[in-house]
Amino acid sequence: MKKVKKIVKKIPQTTTINKTVHQKSDKKTIITSNQVNKTPMKKGNGKQKVAIWKDTTYSNNQNTKIVKPLEKKIRKEILASSKKAKNEQDLRQRQEKERERQITHLKVIPKKTVITTTKAKQKKMVKKKPNLSLIAKLFKKKAKKEIVKPVKKEAKKPVITSTIILTPVKKQQLNPTSLPSNTIKPQTLKEEFNQPTPSSITNEIPVVTPPIKMEKRTKELKQKKKEKKIFTGKFVTIIILICIFSTILTICTSKILQRKKDEKSIHNQVVEIQKVVNVEEVTDNDNTTIIEPVEEIPKFNPYWDYINMNLINVDFNSLKETNDQVKGWIQVNGTNINYPFVQASDNKYYLTHSFNKSYNLAGWVFLDYRNDLSQLNKNTIIYAHGRIDKTMFGSLKNILTNGFLNDPNNFVVKLSTEYENTLWQVFSVYRIPLTSDYLKTTFVNDKQFLDFTKMLTDRSAHDFGTTVNETDQILTLSTCYNDDGERVVLHAKLIKKEIRTY
Q1: Which residues, 6 or more positions from 117, have their beta carbon under 8 angstroms from its beta carbon?
Q2: Beta 420-432 vs 338-342: how paired, if at all?
Q3: d(C-alpha 463, C-alpha 454), whole Å
Q4: Which residues make beta-bridge pairs with 426?
Q5: What pLDDT score was predicted for residue 365?
Q6: Worst-scoring range by mean pLDDT, 71-85, 180-194, 466-480?
Q7: Which of 177, 267, 196 is nearest to 23 (CA)?
Q8: What residues are paired with 499 via a beta bridge?
Q9: What is the DSSP string of 98-165?
Q10: Active-site amino acid positions
Q11: Looking at CB atoms within 10 Å, which of 18, 155, 235, 267 has the fewest?
Q12: Are 21 and 82 in contact (CB under 8 A)?
C-alpha cells in the first residue's frame, strides 16, 4: 500500500479536540469524541514549513496533494462546525437552567439523573420533574429539535486514535473531482469528525404536552388557596365565638345557680332565727337616757316624735349557740333590715360567710372589727351586701329611689346589744363611688370630728334638718350599690339609749 501524502502549510503541531457537540436536525446527541494524538514531524527546506502525519487507517501506498484553498476551506468548516457545536451546547445549557428555574419556582419534586461521560470523574446532574404546562409553553416550538433518543449505557471501549502522515510534495493545482478514489476528500474528513463514538452516553429529556394552559392553572390554584384561606378564617372565627359564648353562658349559669343556692340558704337561716328569737319593744324606764341636744330644736322637728319611740330588746343566748360572734340586732324602719349582726377579726370573713359560718356569697350583716360596743366609738360602722332579693342590706341601697325619703317615720335606726338598747336619728343619705373617707372610727379632737360630720351632711341627697355637734356619736350603714364599686351610705346620730341590767 502506498503512503498518503498531503501538503499543509503552517498546521499546528498538536491539536486536541475534546467534547465536541454536534446537533442534527432530527435528534439531539451529546458526543465525546476520541482524543486524536498527532505527532508532528518537521520536514522541508527554506521558507516553506509543513507537518507530516501518519494515518494508520488508510493505505500507506496512496499519496494525496491538498492545495492551499482546499486546506483553508476544510479548516474553516471544521472550526465553524466546532463553533456551532459550542454555541448549541451553550444554548442547550441555558435552556436547561431556565427549565430548572421554572421547575423550582413551581415547587416540582426533583428527580435525580446521573449523566456519565468518558472522563474519569462523573458529574451528577439533577433532573427535576417538569411542570407540564410551563415546559410545554417554553419548549413547544423546539420539541422536535430537543427530543433525544435514549442510548443504552455501554461499557467503556478503548480509545481508537488515528494518525495521518503527510509528506511534503510539490505544489500542483488539483481539481477535487479529479482526485483518485482512494484520496481523502474534504467531505470525508468532515464526516469523520461528525461520527459519534460508542462511548457517548446521553439521557432522554422528555417533553410532555400539558393538558391545560399555565395561566389557567395558576389562576385556579390561586383561587383555591384564596377560598381555603377564607374558609379557614371563617371556621376559626366561628370556633372562637362559640368558645366565648359557651364560656360566658357557663359562667352566667353557674353564678345564677350559686346565687339561688345562697338565697335559699339565707332564707332558711332567717326563718330559723325568727323561730328562736323574739324581738320585743320596751318602754322607757329608769335606765333610759335621752341625749340632750346642744342646739335648740324646733317643735315641728320629728326629733320630738323619735325620742318617744320604744326601743327593741333581744335575748342573744339562743343566737350564741349558733354563732358565738353575735354582737347585736339592727332594725331600720321602712326597709327589710331586721337581722342580728356579728363581728369578726377582719372585715372580709362575713363577706363570704353566712350567720352559721357556712360559705355563702350573700354574706351577713357585720360590725367593723375596729368598733367596741361596750364603749361606743365616735363612729360605729355596720356593713352588709346589697342583695337583689332585698335580703341583708338589699333594701337599703334603694332608699334614694323607692320613696323611703318621703316618710319621716323611716328616719330612725334601732339597735340592741348585750350592753344597751339604742335609738338613732338619720341625718345624711347618699350614693358615692368607692371610697373610705367616711369609714373613720376615731378622731384626734372635736374639730376633726366636726369637719367629718359636716362633710357627711353636705353629701346628703336629702335635707333632714338635723345637726351634729362635737358631743354626738354617729352610726354608719354602708352597702354596695353595683359591681362598679359605688356605695349607698346612711348616717344617723344617737338620740336615746337604755342600759341593760338583765
Answers
A1: 19, 32, 123, 201
A2: unpaired
A3: 13
A4: 492
A5: 96
A6: 180-194
A7: 196
A8: 420
A9: HHHHHHHHTTPPEEEEEE--SSSS-EEEEEEPPPHHHHHHHHSTTHHHH-------------------
A10: 480
A11: 155
A12: no
Q: DSSP assignment of 373-431, as one string?
A: TTS--SEEEEEE-B-TTSTBTTTTTTTTTSSGGG-GGGSEEEEEESSEEEEEEEEEEEE
C-alpha span between 68 and 81 (Å, rounded): 20
Q: What are the residues facing 480 on neighbouring strands?
A: 487
Residues with Cβ within 8 Å of 461's Cβ and at least 6 positions away in sequence, in order, are: 400, 405, 429, 430, 431
pLDDT tens digits for range 294-303: 778 888 888 9
**pTM check: above 0.85:** no
One-letter amino acid of 408: P
d(CA 435, CA 488): 11
Closest CA to 371 of 351, 348, 343: 343
pLDDT(389) > 60? yes
Question: Any idea which of 77-91, 353-367, 430-444 has the lowest mean pLDDT?
Answer: 77-91
pLDDT the model gives residue 306 = 93
Per-residue pLDDT at 380 exceeds 90: yes
Q: Report pLDDT digits (tens) over 235-270.
A: 788 888 889 988 898 898 888 888 888 889 999 999
Whether the CA torsion 339, 344, 349, 354 is positive or negative: it is: negative
**What's the one-letter identity of residue 303?**
Y
Residue 106 binned pLDDT confidence (cut-offs 50, 70, 90)? low
Confidence of residue 313 (pLDDT cuts 50, 70, 90): very high
| Contact (Cβ atoms closer than 8 angstroms) between residue 142 and residue 92 | no
Positive or negative, the CA dihedral 376, 377, 378, 381 is negative
Distance CA 118, CA 126 (A): 19
Residues facing residue 260 across a β-bridge: none
**Distance between CA atoms of residues 120 and 37, nearest Å:** 19
